[in-house]
Amino acid sequence: MGSLKKRSVNLAGHATSLALEPEFWAALERVAKQDAVSIAALIQRIDAGRGERPLASACRVFALQRAGG
User: Which residues form the Ribbon-helix-helix domain (predicted)?
Assistant: First the structure.
């Protein structure tokens, strides 16, 4: 996998930075397109359901789950 790419996202009114490998960003962008939502909206959805898991980990797990299912 490639090096991490950072993006800024707004979660619950707070700006935060999220670093993922480009392959995971691409997978999340595909899911966002399939679900007809913005990447920010998708990440907000992942954030809302992640529990104690770090956001970057939750995004990776989400992308893998969607790729497999």
Answer: 5-65
Tell me, what amino acid is at 20?
A: L
Task: Tell me the backbone φ, ψ of residue 9, rounded to 5 degrees.
Answer: -135, 155
d(CA 57, CA 8): 16
62 vs 44: CA distance, rounded Å: 12
At 19-43, the pLDDT tens digits run 999 999 999 999 999 999 999 999 9
- Enclosing domain of residue 56: 21-68
Element (H, E) at 14: strand 14-20
Q: Is there a domain that residue 4 lies in?
A: no
